[in-house]
Amino acid sequence: MKVRAEVRSVMDGKEKVVLAYSGGLDTSVAALWLQEQGYEVITFTADVGQPVDLQRVRDKALRVGVLEAYVFDLREEFVSGYVAPIIKANGLYQGKYPLSASISRPLISKYLVWLAKKEGAGYVAHGCTGKGQDQVRFDVSVAALDPTLKVLAPVRDWGMSREEEIDYALQYGIPVDVTKSSPYSIDVNVWGRSIECGPLEDPWVEPPSDAFEWTVDPLEAPDRPTYMEIEFEGGLPVAVDGERMSLLSILELLNKVGGENGVGRIDMIEDRLVGFKSREVYEAPAAKIILEAHRAIESLTLSKELLAFKASVEPRYAELVYTGYWYSPLKQALDVFFDYTQQWVNGKARVKLYKGSCTVVGLASETDSLYKHDLATYSKEDAFDHRAAAGFIKIWGLPIRTWAERHILEDAMYSEEKLSRFMLNV
Fold this sequence. Notes:
alpha/beta, six-stranded mixed β-sheet
């Protein structure tokens, strides 16, 4: 972990609060508002791969008078400790959302708690509204890590609309990138980009082109497909096209190449924990490619029973993460199960990227493949014992045969009159 902050002397007197600070509209306004309420504010910004000038973010916080502005480089920890478990679990909320924002919140909460102890603060704060999931993720994660800390949520408490927040920022000279004409609320990390608000709130409206930054319009993507080979070890990608690299580097590469091919756009109606449906738009090229490839490698290397059971608990795992239960006992127990399954998930997947689609077109595993060509083939190399099939079918169908001997299935039988209705006059 690199600390990109110069430690200043701590003032005494007022109560201190550590604010999770992105530098966006909500947290910029919250930093000043908390000071108006009498708190000494310390900001914390986590670098989790968002493409922003973090020095500018720190300077911006200091300009509004905060006591200290910390910026930590947490990209490697985010990828190894938070993205990696999602890959192993094929984590998709409601089958679509790869949980990009969901997994950064427990990491940020961890450092909010750490900084609160370091600075002697009795409060932590975030810039979440009272309608979203992030408030739950922050509040619950902080409670799991230090139940004695109090959590403040200025945006949830003050009742400002987004337009009023913009006016407040302009009134006090707080520079913000969002405008009333482009009112998107955006959250970014190396696993995905979330876009909310503005015209996206109408599910009938197609997302405008200016909502997307990582992905080209699939119609404007290259006319020839791009092929890539992704190698997995222990359930995680370790190489692309034969070149070994860190997971962070793989994510950055796949986001770039996937985005150039229009891969990774997600537009869904999402059920929020707080009880209503919301239209959500995401860009996640690397997540799309890796999860497609990972599931395919699992299909080659894991047994039928293991695949079926794993698939049955994956949605529950995704829901735990989505609803802020990252530090829950059940989530941690499922991590142990997923880690156990991944010891056999080794091999390569060849993917085809073409105009927004990602398709696995080749699979290989020298060490753990359960696919045996001599059993699957219909050629002269066929080693399957066909004679054993009849005895197997007799035993397999014995329960049905026994039932039928006692209970004739009348509904399955047809009279000549009924059958005549289906006969063709030829």
